Amino acid sequence: MNVFSRLPNFLQSALARQGIKTPTDVQTAAIPDILAGRDTLATAQTGTGKTLAFLLPLAARLWVRPDANALILSPTRELAQQTFEEWQKITDGQNLPAALIIGGDNIHKQFADLRRHPRVIVATPGRVIDHLQHKSIDFRKTHTLILDETDRMLDMGFIDDMRRIVHALPAPRHTLLFSATLPDEVKQLAQEFLNNPVRVQIGSVVKPAEFVLQEIVRVDIREKLPQLLHELNTRSGSVLIFTRTKHGAERLAKQLKLYGQKCNALHGDLRQNRRRQVLEFFRNQTVRILVATDVAARGIDVPHIAHVINYDLPQSPEDYIHRIGRTGRAGAVGNSISFIAGDEEKWAAICKVTKFSSPVKVVQKTIEPLPAPKFIAREEGAAHAKNRRRKIVPSKATERAKELLQSGEVYLPQGEELQKARQAQQNAVSKKVKTFQKAVKAAQVLEEKPFQSFRTVKVGASKKTLRQIKHAENKPVHAQKKRHPFKKKHR
Question: Is the link from the previous residue into 172 a cis peptide, with omega within 30 of 0?
Fold first, then answer.
């Protein structure tokens, strides 16, 4: 039986608009228990539809319970953003507003969003703690908690923040815990947060995606960049490249641009607006290559990623599974290749933990001479690159000034003559003295002809004084007072 038939009509219509007709395995297994209100511990590989597995039953439960709210915690801003967008798609037209509360966004805008009392809050743990400190977030009606990619949140050190958030929620609470892997830390956390949970497990948590063809190539460190350029030039489709550090991602992206590749870097030091922009250019295929750190290993749901390249091997086998899981999603076939450059121990650890469904192919290195570097405008979009390449044409005024200088009609002092001119200017009467002399002459004119049509007004004169002057000018001469317009009354 299709579990989608248990959902309200508006959710079924939203799925039909997206062309989703058949539920995935994790959706089939998790949706009935979540609809029944049971705590759930679910593990499944990346790209198996875990997000809709908890969003669909959550929307159904909130739709029939107008007094209930929910909190969804995600490890990264990108994953929270995608979850928020999926919620908007399936609840379009319904009274189920949501708020996105993540780091890097304007916190004052988030204050306004929270004052509207959203039914669902999609957030990262750090920013929720900020709002708890400001007392700007209200959890009194929040009886549903969803922890998405829990293993990643533990890896990023959010355990204390998660405990603090859970203690701020009211009881009883409906808790869902979703994870791609199930280390001991996640099991311990499930015992702490969940009450007699239903266990949902789809596939192996230490097994890469089934439709990803895995390759490795052994190179020296100096051969990594030439080999990478060879792989990029011989493969078609979008490419996601992983590096170990933020600095490495920026440096590699700049190197690839020098050799004519359209790419951008994505890492944790980028501002939130820039991170969204980089992901958007990658999604709409304005930029073919994305160089990222492990911050992008979770939460990037781009269906057209054809290749994942591990330029640097990850620190843990679990990260390897998440990295290559960015391709081969939703039944599509993907390809991954890992560069092994003096880190055989890391690869041995990956092989020991990871259960490969098919043997990993060893590729012979093909080192080609590096082409001559060439300047390429920063690939932030075709329009930006076009503007950077545009030739700057001098204005007509600039051209005319050059003609006058060359013809001798205009003369500019140079060298010693210029120094003499500056010395003469310094020896001249100061500007303040000249200004004072002008003010004295203006006062003499006013004393001689106090009611002429012109007036000298001090800088900063009040509006009242200006009105008095204008009123005095409009009066006939015999009706005007003989008091000076600037002289104050003595009280």
Answer: yes
Q: How far apart are CA 321 and CA 315, in angstroms?
A: 12
Chain-centre distance for alpha carbon 77: 7
Describe the chain by its helix, strand, coil percentages, rounded to 5: 45, 15, 40
Compute the distance between CA of residue 129 and CA of residue 159 in angstroms, rounded to an integer: 12
- Output the domain CATH number for residue 99: 3.40.50.300
DSSP state of 137: -
Last residue of a domain, one of 169, 202, 235: 202
Q: Is residue 416 part of a domain?
A: no
Q: What is the pLDDT of residue 454?
A: 46
265 and 232 in one domain?
A: yes
Same domain, 166 and 293: no
| Strand arrangement of the beta sheet that strand 69-73 belongs to | 98-101, 120-123, 69-73, 142-147, 174-179, 40-44, 198-202
Domain match, 187 and 293 both: no
Tell me the whole-structure pTM to 2 decimals: 0.64
Q: In what order do the strands lie in the sheet with 305-310?
A: 263-266, 289-292, 238-242, 305-310, 334-340, 212-218, 361-363
Q: Is residue 364 a part of any domain in this protein?
A: yes
Indicate whether 487 belongs to any domain: yes
- Total tally of structural domains belonging to the chain: 3
- C-alpha span between 128 and 276 (Å, rounded): 20
State the residue for tokens 């609840």: 91
Question: Letter for the amino acid at 227?
Answer: Q
Closest C-alpha among 238, 321, 294, 328 to residue 76: 294
Which of 249, 364, 265 is closest to 312 using CA atoms? 249
Q: Do 196 and 288 belong to one domain? A: no
At 157 the pLDDT is: 83
Whether 102 and 91 have beta carbons less than 8 Å apart is answered as no
Domain of 476 in residue numbering reads as 444-491
Same domain as 110, residue 84: yes
Same domain, 237 and 185: no
Tell me if 432 is assigned to some domain: no
Look at residue 131 in the predicted model and tell me its pLDDT.
Answer: 94
Average pLDDT for consecutive 10-residue bins of the chain (491 residues)? 88 91 90 94 82 94 92 91 92 90 90 94 94 93 93 85 93 90 85 92 67 88 91 91 92 90 88 86 91 74 87 86 78 85 87 76 80 55 46 68 70 64 62 58 58 46 65 61 51 47
Report the pLDDT value the prediction gives residue 48, as an integer from 0 to 100. 77
Torsion angles phi and psi, residue 106, rounded to 5: -65, 115
* Rounded Cα distance, 287 and 275, in Å: 14
